[in-house]
Specification:
231 residues, alpha/beta, Rossmann fold, six-stranded mixed beta sheet, four-stranded antiparallel beta sheet, binds adenosine-5'-diphosphate, binds magnesium ion
């Protein structure tokens, strides 16, 4: 699903450039649930943004579902993103002046699905998240965990093959974090590839494979000790 070979990326910071990804080799198969771990500044978000075709890279190859992702126009990149990828962020990124249902329905609006139809589908996804009673509430009336479940419903509504989540539990308390991780496990059980960036060990241990980044390279990779609950 994700094939990365000797990938490098630098940021241009005016006078000098910052070499952030320094030769990443990584393969993630369809149906995997993995975490990308590492301390702040190690390049996790940069790598996730490349995987999500939100950002370009300088050297190496990135194939998504067998297709080389390089020199894409903004329109082509958007097309692949819409076909393939759902995003979840630490800060939820909900639109504050739209209610839960409208936020979930948003990707279908961009696909020009009629309002009635997209709202009906959004209600199904809210139902799956146990949020039906909250459909007409605005984001500021929801708890952190509820907001993240709305964001996850929004990420799922266009039937992505991959979910990319950047520190999805970073703004949540421990109990709520584990509930959100249970949800990612469930989503993965349905065959969707899930890639989660985190700097928290207990969160990474709720995936099946941990890819550890240090200073822009993968310095180690391991399977967390099998915990029966998550086997
Ligand atoms: P992480 O997510 O692991 O904390 P990032 O991938 O966000 O790390 O950042 C890696 C390095 O790249 C950091 O030193 C950060 O300051 C720098 N960086 C990230 N985004 C940009 C950008 N848009 N422009 C310049 N430097 C950036
Ligand atoms: Mg980050």
């Amino acid at each position: 699903m994700v094939e990365i070979k000797n990938l490098h990326k630098s940021y241009d910071t005016g006078a000098n450039s910052l070499h952030v990804l320094k030769g990443i080799d990584l393969q993630i198969g369809q149906g995997e649930i993995v975490s990308i771990m590492g301390s702040s500044g190690s390049g996790k978000s940069t790598l996730l943004n490349v995987i999500g075709i939100l950002d370009s890279y300088d050297k190496g190859d990135y194939l998504l579902n067998g297709t080389l992702m390089r020199n894409l126009s903004e329109k082509q990149a958007a097309w692949y993103r819409n076909q393939m990828i759902g995003f979840v962020f630490q800060s939820f990124n909900l639109i504050s002046f739209k209610n839960a249902m409208e936020n979930v329905a948003l990707p279908l609006y961009y696909q020009k699905v009629s309002r009635r139809k997209r709202n009906n589908i959004a209600m199904e996804y809210l139902d799956k998240m146990g949020l039906l009673p909250w459909a007409t509430h605005m984001p500021n009336e929801l708890s952190g965990g509820q907001k993240q479940r709305v964001a996850i419903a929004r990420a799922l509504i266009a039937n992505p093959k991959i979910i990319l989540a950047d520190e999805p539990t970073g703004a949540l308390d421990t109990q709520t974090s584990y509930e959100v991780m249970d949800l990612f496990q469930e989503i993965n059980s349905a065959g969707i590839t899930v890639i989660i960036v985190t700097h928290e060990k207990d969160i990474s241990e709720r995936t099946k494979r941990v890819i550890h980044l240090k200073d822009g390279i993968i310095d180690r990779e391991y399977k967390p000790q099998i915990n029966l609950q998550y086997a």
